[in-house]
Amino acid sequence: MNTTGDTLDKLVVFLAKRDGIDKLVKTFQYVSKLAHWGAESSRPGFAQRAKCWETASGLSRKAFRTGRFLTGFNALRRAAPAGELGALALLANAGEMVYYFFDHFTWLSRAGVLEPWLARRASFVSAFGESVGYVFFIAMDLVMIRRGLRQERRLLLLREGGKDADGDQVRRIRMDRVMRLMATAANVADLVIAIAEVEPNPFCSHAVTLGISGLVSAWAGWYRNWPS
User: Fold this and answer.
1) Is 24 inside any structural domain?
2) What is the pLDDT of residues 7-31, one digit of tens each?
3) pTM, full prediction
4) Which of 13, 169, 194, 222 fits a 20 to 30 Å CA distance from 211?
5) Dihedral, CA atoms, 115, 116, 120, 126, nearest 10 degrees?
6) What's the farthest any 2 CA atoms get from each other in the chain?
7) pLDDT, tens digit (0-9, with 9 covering 90-100), for 213-225
8) Buried b (16+ CB within 10 A) or exposed e, 186-201
9) Is residue 11 included in any domain, yes or no?
């Protein structure tokens, strides 16, 4: 079995996706943030290079997300208007759409195309929409995890009672739960980063908190997008 070849093939597929590239560059961004923090006092030259890498990675991710707000708009347009999940989906996708739309202005301002003062305002609105979106995406995943646990429990009770239970369905429920837990971890981590932008505070705004949160988000997303 060619394990190295299989891994390489999966890596190629992973990096062919927009989200795959984003998670890789996000890893660069937050590793360099931690490197800058760790070397700032002892190795200022290296710390400055790490800061440049962090800045370049952040701007690259924003450029690569051009037009991404249309995904949120399309999901918002298709979201079911009724029911518990429908209401959560509307709010989550509305927040995501605001996030990605105003992120364009943050990127153009920081790149020098628009006035520099616009970056702070656009970043605040973008982060606020991001925070709203993450709160409701987390709520959606927790609702679905709860439903999956109940369904799995019913199937296992059928099996214990000697009745036929679909083993493949149980496995699908468990895999879906793992993916939703990864999504929840990523969304909680990104929510911490967004809060640091909306309402700066010593905990959320600390370089270590931001660095660890960014890596948790990147690696959870990496797991979810890695080809099976």
Assistant:
1) yes
2) 888 888 888 888 889 999 999 999 9
3) 0.89
4) 13
5) 50
6) 70
7) 999 999 999 999 9
8) bbbbbbbbbbbbbeee
9) no
